[in-house]
Amino acid sequence: MSPLATDVLVIGAGPAGAAAARAAAGRGLTVICVDRRAEIGVPVQCAEFVPMPLLRTVHETDSRVQDVEGMLTVLPSGLQHHSVFPGMMIDRARFDQGLAELAQAAGAQVKIRCQFLAWDGEVARLRCGTDEAFIVRPRLLIGADGPHSRVAKAVGLPHQQVVYTRQYTVPLLRPYADTDIFLSDAFPGGYGWLFPRGPVANLGLGADRRFEDNLKLPLEQLHQQMVERGIVGESVLGRTGGAIPVGGIRRMVHGNVVLAGDAAGLTHPITGAGIPAAVISGAGAGLAAADYLAGDEDALESYAEDMQDQFGPALARAVQRRKSLEAVWRQPAAQEDRVMRSSWIAFDEYFAA
Ligand SMILES: Cc1cc2nc3c(=O)[nH]c(=O)nc-3n(C[C@H](O)[C@H](O)[C@H](O)COP(=O)(O)OP(=O)(O)OC[C@H]3O[C@@H](n4cnc5c(N)ncnc54)[C@H](O)[C@@H]3O)c2cc1C
């Protein structure tokens, strides 16, 4: 059978892919957006916090669960630091589904149970449902397939460095308007978090596997501490986890292949926040695709430069802070508040030269 022709093929219908599909379809291109999942956004692999600048997208997707006012950072000594950090807790499955619906409304075809397998520079081979060899010939391919991007691998990029996470959803025993962050040598290469989500909370942690392979034990200890403080209940209502890229921006344009979101390494290497960058880069990639296919030869490189301008400095600082921390994990210095303050975004020291 001859390959199916389309202007743009988007791999992944997460925030980056759906935003890309929406933007490209909105400019009149034919767009196919595929995701290997059986249901968009499910299972949720996220702590579900987004900052205020994403308000419009949260409204558009009807995914707001509760507002967040600030961030409470708990240092190794137990000292607490409160900062104003407004944002929202979202229903991440609803957020992703809403974005995919907006892409469809703009004219994109969204296909689930459809896995990207290979790219030979001209055609993409996919497995869609029972169709073992669904072949698509796009004029442009967008890789928005997350931290372990197969598209990035197909264009020759090595695996990116990731932090692994584990998260429980637990009952929250009282209303709460802050995101709590726990900095400790118990979570080397990452941190612990308690994010309120109405009557429940997402309680999780991330760690670098080179320093801590067993995430279950520290998470159970963190859970127990929260139970003893009367903040959350004993039961575990849900479990999830996943990988977070922490290596910084990768090369985003490879001929007529463009990367966005986690696949492009746009997630913040210290906080692990990646939803805003995924939405922004996805939309940027979709618009750049339209300009490029309309004859603007520089459009894709302009997209990469724009992303570098928007995210590059913050990501470079975060990568550098991670590197400094790598020297101290499992050393006495990792127990010092001073060291942790210089490595977390809530403190002025983090932004010092
Ligand atoms: C535990 C955890 C907590 C987090 N908490 C937050 C948070 O609170 N706030 C925040 O901003 N960020 C958070 N992040 C990061 C955030 O989830 C990501 O940065 C964001 O999902 C990136 O969006 P994306 O569209 O690039 O990738 P993804 O959301 O990963 O979407 C990629 C999509 O591609 C699909 N896919 C993958 N491979 C293929 C293939 N071969 N073929 C077809 N489809 C494929 C996947 O099924 C997936 O749907 C968290 C991450 C984790 C793991």
Task: Itemize the secondary structure elements and their pairings.
Blueprint (H helix, E strand, L loop, with lengths): L3 E8 L3 H12 L4 E4 L14 E3 L3 H7 L2 E11 L5 E11 L1 H14 L3 E3 L2 E6 L4 E5 L2 E13 L6 H5 L7 E10 L6 E5 L9 E6 L2 E8 L8 H13 L9 E8 L7 E2 L2 E3 L15 H19 L5 H28 L10 H5 L6 H4 L2
Parallel strand pairs: 1-2, 1-9, 2-6, 4-11, 9-16
Antiparallel strand pairs: 3-5, 4-5, 7-8, 8-9, 10-13, 10-14, 11-12, 12-13, 15-16
Helix pairs in contact: 1-3, 1-6, 2-3, 6-7
The structure holds flavin-adenine dinucleotide.
Flavin-adenine dinucleotide (FAD) binds next to helix 1, strand 3, strand 7, strand 10 and strand 14.
Task: Characterise this structure.
InterPro entries: FAD-bd, FAD/NAD-bd_sf, Geranylgeranyl_Rdtase_fam, Geranylgeranyl_reductase. This is Geranylgeranyl reductase. The protein is of the alpha/beta class and 353 residues long. The protein has one domain (4-351): FAD/NAD(P)-binding domain (3-Layer(bba) Sandwich). Helices cover 30% and strands 30% of the residues. The strands form two sheets. Strands 1, 2, 6, 7, 8, 9, 15 and 16 form an eight-stranded mixed β-sheet that branches. Helix 1 (15-26) runs parallel beside helix 6, helix 2 (55-61) packs across helix 3 (92-105) and helix 6 (275-293) runs antiparallel to helix 7 (299-326). The model has no long low-confidence stretch (mean pLDDT 96).
Count of DSSP strands: 16
Uncertain parts: none
- pLDDT averaged residue by residue: 96
Radius of gyration over C-alpha positions, nearest whole angstrom: 20 Å
Overall spatial form: globular
What is the N-to-C succession of helices and strands? Answer: EHEEHEEHEEEEHEEEEHEEEHHHH
Strand content bin: 25-35%
Query: Could you please say which CATH topology applies here?
Result: FAD/NAD(P)-binding domain
CATH architecture, by name, is: 3-Layer(bba) Sandwich
Number of domains: 1
The biggest beta sheet is recorded as:
8 strands, mixed
Share of helical residues? 25-40%
Classify the secondary structure makeup into a structural class: alpha/beta
In whole angstroms, the N-to-C terminal distance is: 59 Å
Bound molecules: flavin-adenine dinucleotide
**Annotated CATH homologous superfamily:** FAD/NAD(P)-binding domain
